[in-house]
Amino acid sequence: MKARCLQPSVLDADGLQRLLPHRPPLLLVDGVDAVGEDPPSLRAHRDIRASEPVLAGHFPGRPVWPGVYTIEGLAQACALLGALRSTGSAPASGTRPAVFLASVDVKLTRPVLAGHRLDYRVVWTHSIGTVHRFSVEALVGGRTAARGTLLLAEEKER
Questions:
Q1: What is the pTM for the complete model shown?
Q2: pLDDT for the residue 14
Q3: Is residue 16 scored above 80 in pLDDT?
Q4: Is 45 a catalytic residue?
Q5: What is the pLDDT of residue 12?
Q6: Which of 2, 67, 100, 158 has its CA 20 to 30 A from that of 143?
Q7: What pLDDT, on the 0 to 100 scale, is given for residue 3?
Q8: What's the gap between Cα 117 and its chain centre?
Q9: How far is CA 114 from CA 49, 53, 85, 110, 143, in A?
Q10: How many CB atoms lie within 10 A of CB 85?
Q11: Please, how many CA atoms are within 13 Å of residue 102, restricted to the half-sphere of its CB?
C-alpha cells in the first residue's frame, strides 16, 4: 500500500486525545508519523511494551499482542485520518461526531510481541454518506502483521 505526498507529522498525546475519545489502556496509537493527501493516508505507530496489562494474560510465558488490539489500533488510525481531514489539525475540544467500527475484513499474518513497534498504514479509499472505507496494514519491522479493509461509520444525529 503506497501513498504519495506523505508529509511528516508530529501529533503528541494531547493532540491524539483531542481527536480520539479513547484513553489508556485502550488508546492504541502512540503517535502520528505522516499524513498524505493523494490519496488521503496516514502513518501512525504503537510501541508494544512488556508492561501492557493485556500481555499478563495473553499468554503467560509468551506474551502476544491480541490481534483484535491490532485491528482496533488500525481503526483508531483511520479515525485520526478522518479527524485530521475534517479539522486540518487537532481541535481544541472534542466536538466531532463519534465514529464506530462497522465492518472488519483483516487477515492477521504474524504475531506481534512485547518490544515490537507496530506501524499502522491506512488509506481512505472512499465514502458513501457517513460510511467510510479504508485499506489498512499493520507492520512489524517492515513486515506485514495484518492487512485488509475497515469500514467506519459516523454516529447519526440524535
A1: 0.90
A2: 85
A3: yes
A4: no
A5: 78
A6: 100
A7: 46
A8: 13
A9: 5, 11, 32, 13, 16
A10: 13
A11: 15
- Measured CA to CA, the distance from residue 136 to residue 147 in angstroms comes to 6
The amino acid at residue 132 is: H
Instruction: With a cut of 60, say whether residue 40 has pLDDT above it.
Output: yes
For the segment(s) 7-154, the CATH number from 2.40.10.340, 1.10.30.50, 3.10.129.10, 3.40.190.10 is: 3.10.129.10
DSSP alpha helices (H): ranges in 40-128? 67-87
State the CB neighbour count (10 A cutoff) for residue 146: 22
For the chain, the domains span 7-154
Q: Which of 58, 116, 126, 132 is catalytic?
A: 58
What pLDDT digit, counting tens, does each position of 77-129 carry? 999 999 998 865 544 555 567 899 999 999 999 999 999 999 999 999 999 99
* Sequence-separated (6 or more) residues with CB below 8 Å from residue 118: 45, 46, 47, 48, 65, 70, 73, 112, 138, 139, 140, 145
Other CB atoms within 10 A of residue 36 CB: 19
